[in-house]
Structures are given as C-alpha cells and as structure tokens.
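User: Some background: our group keeps a shared notebook of sequences we're curious about, and every so often someone picks one and asks for a predicted structure to add to the entry. Today it's my turn. The entry only has the sequence so far, pasted here. Could you supply the structure so I can complete it?
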Amino acid sequence: MRREFHVRFSEGLGVRFPGATHLVVHCRSRHQLEWIKRRIERRLKHCKLDLHPEKTRVIYCKGSRRNGEWPSYSFDFLGYQFRSRSARNRRGEFFVSFSPAISPKAAKSLRQRVRREWKLKGRTQSSINEIARIFNPIITGWINCYGRFCRSALHPVLDHINDVLAKWAMRKFKRLRGRRTRAHRWLKGVARRDPQLFVHWQYQDWMTRAV
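Assistant: Of course. Here's the predicted structure to add to the notebook entry:
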C-alpha cells in the first residue's frame, strides 16, 4: 500500500488486520477476486490509502487440481515462499500442492548471518561443545520458524552451518588444515558419537548415520 501508517481494519466476522502494510487474500475464482478487490479498494479509501499499483499482484495457486495458466505462480510473505511443490498424501501418493517453505531470500539472509555474525574464524580457542551451547538456541529458533512447512527447503542453510563448522575445525586442528574432505569426515564422526550436540543434526540423518 501507499501512504502506509498504523491503522486497524475491522470487517465482518471480526476479522482484523493490524498494521496496514500487506494484505494476502485467497479467492476461489476470478469473479470472487474482482469482487473482493473492489471491496478492499473501497475500504482503503476510507482510510486515505490505496493499493500500490506495482506491488499488488494476482498469483495463481497452481496444483494437481488447478492446472490453469497465469503469469505468476509464486509469492513471498513473512520469510516464506508460496509456490507449487511435490507432496505426498496419507496413502503415500505424490501430488502437486501449493504450499509454503522458507524463501530463497530468507535462506540467503540466514547464511549471511552465519558468515558475518557468528565469526567462527576467531573462535579457535573454543571447543565444539562451547560453540554448540552458544549457537544451538539460534538454530532452534530458525528451525521452529522456517521448518514448520517443507523442512527440506531449510537443509541448504543447515548444510551451510556444517560447512562453516568444518572450516572452523580446519583452523583449529593442524592435522585438518587445508584438508576440507577430512574436516567434513571429522565433523560427521563427532555427529555420530554425539548426535544431540547440535540441534539440527537431529534432522540430518546423513550426518549421524554409521558408515
């Protein structure tokens, strides 16, 4: 929306939208879409607001039961990307659903935070247990926030954490310096001996699986 400021909407059935910044509306048909869009525009005008002409988008929720054609099939909202994804029903059958998972932008931001803010390069005096104690609460928060839907999309971030830990080991131990493959092998050995050390290892069986 343009001319954004704090305002509350109170439409039928007690629906409230705190902070008029982004609205996400799901419609069942094109006819319903046009109708609700007119209602939103009319309501916004009462607050001296209007829909942003470039940011307002219509997305087609494409899936196994919705095979129509449309210019856009995905959108990002609150760190999630909603788009078509493979899923499995209760009978084990695969189908295409329109569902959320961590967005590429949010995943990139988390990887950057690991590199820039964790600063493992300067923690060579710390032990692997101390590092786990410091960063496990952060990792737990990320998993709880972004792993609620399609957790597999979060694995590139978790793999990046493992990669950073392996590089930390290469700096800490002389026998691992310049030996990236050996450092990753060492880290997997730690994971097999203590699979509860880092919280994300509980969701990565390839780290704790015995060879």
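Suggested note for the entry: Residues 1-20 have pLDDT under 50 and may be disordered. Helices lie at 30-46, 104-117, 128-146, 155-172, 180-193, 205-208.
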